[in-house]
Design a protein that fits this description.
By secondary structure, the chain is an alpha+beta fold. It has a single domain, classed as Gcn5-related N-acetyltransferase (GNAT) (Aminopeptidase). It has four helices and five strands, in the order E-H-H-E-E-E-H-E-H. A five-stranded mixed sheet has the order 1-2-3-4-5, sandwiched between helices. The radius of gyration is 15 Å and the shape is globular. The termini are far apart. The relative contact order is 0.14.
């Protein structure tokens, strides 16, 4: 059985390898400083970004989800952006990703959000099988301008 709870300082050592696995999956590199800052933000109750960690029946950390909200010009309530979702490779397909998404959608509903949305790479076929079951593909294409790189 999967248990999900809000990230806390005591989760850092088990969250970190999952975070690193997530970055490897997306072929990204972040500095140790940024990783520490990210975790500090996720566990700071006064910071407007949230995180949860999933554990299996033995208590092993097997996944995480991070999200935040923002106002929208298209809705009265805020939107909830599910920014990061990762499940350990050895337990994928077992309902952990679905449970993590459900955690966010439940939280967002209680927070008065109008919608939950996320992005994924078009070639992330395994994840998209789940996403197509729990959400609607809006057909939007994502563009980005990176202001931090020269």
């Amino acid at each position: 059985m999967t248990e999900i709870h809000a990230l806390s300082e005591s989760d850092r050592d088990e969250w970190l390898p999952l975070w690193r696995g997530y970055l490897v999956f997306y072929e990204e590199e972040l500095s140790d400083r940024q990783t520490s800052l990210t975790f500090e933000r996720l566990t700071d109750p006064d910071y407007p970004v949230h995180g949860a960690i999933a554990r299996d029946a033995s208590g092993r950390a097997i996944g995480f989800v991070h999200w935040l909200t923002h106002t929208s010009t298209w809705a009265e309530g805020p939107y909830c952006y599910l920014e990061d979702l990762f499940v350990a490779p050895d337990v994928r397909g077992g309902g952990v990703g679905r449970a993590l998404i459900a955690t966010v959608t439940e939280w967002a509903g209680e927070a008065g959000c109008s919608q939950v949305y996320w992005l994924t790479q078009s070639h992330n076929a395994a994840a998209r099988v789940l996403y197509d079951k729990v959400a609607t593909d809006t057909g939007f294409v994502h563009y980005s301008v990176d202001l931090t790189r020269e």
